[in-house]
Amino acid sequence: MPSTFRRPLANRVFVLALGAIVATSLSACSSSNTTAANNSAASKTLTVGFVPDPSWAQVPVAEANGYFKSEGLTVKVIDFSTGVQSLQALAAGQVDITTSADVPVSAALASAKNMVIIADGSRWKGSVIVGSAKAGIKTAADLAGKKVGTPLGTSAAYFGASFLKQSGVDAQLINVAPSAIVTAMQQGNVPAVSIFQPFQQQVIAALGSDAVVLKPAAGTYVQQSLYLASTTAVKNKADALKSFELALEKASKDLTSQKASAVSAVATATQLSPDLVKTILPEFDYTIELPSDLPTGLSSLGQWAKTEGNLPSTATIPDYSTFINRDFLPAP
């Protein structure tokens, strides 16, 4: 801290005048340097909306293993229960990046124009219906006339609707929040659920021998687990977005090899045991990419969203290719 002292009165007026000039100059330089430093730090700071789901397991792994830090990033992660909520935060400018599955993204992009897709973080083929044997569920046919719990408007709801249609079963999908799924099944509020990970595995574990896993008869829905960025972040934080995806790529390699630190990070984020994490990680392809057929798939999901009332019947399905930005993908 600089020392302070008093000058002789004869010199004080001149010194004060000179001091004012110097102080103004130094203040301007200091302010300029501070502003530049702050701008630089802000450009490498990202707020990330995260749905605690193994689909985007790169986020907790990159955070735990120091990959964000090694890329020069300061990352603040905010948890959301569903992709629908995380997309709302992105549209409102509350986060720079968010995670969401393809189904809610297809609906969000029909109205929100301030976001783009910057990566497909994983593909998941593990969707199933989980039923309760005590509730009389043994096969898909037993769902007829019953209610199936699911968070409406999500990838889980899409799979549930597709499963019922494929099985020729007339059942009703009702809204159950992810956080209430396990309790709803344990208390018998619904006889079956369609839910994404980690809740799917939590339901199966909670029901134990009472759990009945119903797989689709033919084919399956492959959930595409997307990363989206605000157009503001694309404009002002391009270098940070590139660094973010490089960190995700490093984390993907750890997930694919089931590195112990990666398993531990996912277990902590999803509240699953490490053994269960090891069981479900192979269900995911963690390659960071943007498949060429993504716009076509989103268009189909957008049409489904209209039929389900998640989009107004008058809504125009956009050209989803205009929302895809490949500038930040890691080099092959």
TrEMBL record:
It comes from the Bacteria. Belongs to the bacterial solute-binding protein SsuA/TauA family. It comes from Demequina lutea. It holds the Pfam family NMT1. CDD domains: PBP2_NrtA_SsuA_CpmA_like (cd01008). Residues 1-36 form the signal peptide. Residues 45-283 form the Solute-binding protein family 3/N-terminal domain. This is NitT/TauT family transport system substrate-binding protein. GO terms for cellular component: periplasmic space. One of its GO terms (biological process) is alkanesulfonate transmembrane transport. PROSITE patterns: PROKAR_LIPOPROTEIN (PS51257). Keywords: Signal. It is found in: Periplasm.
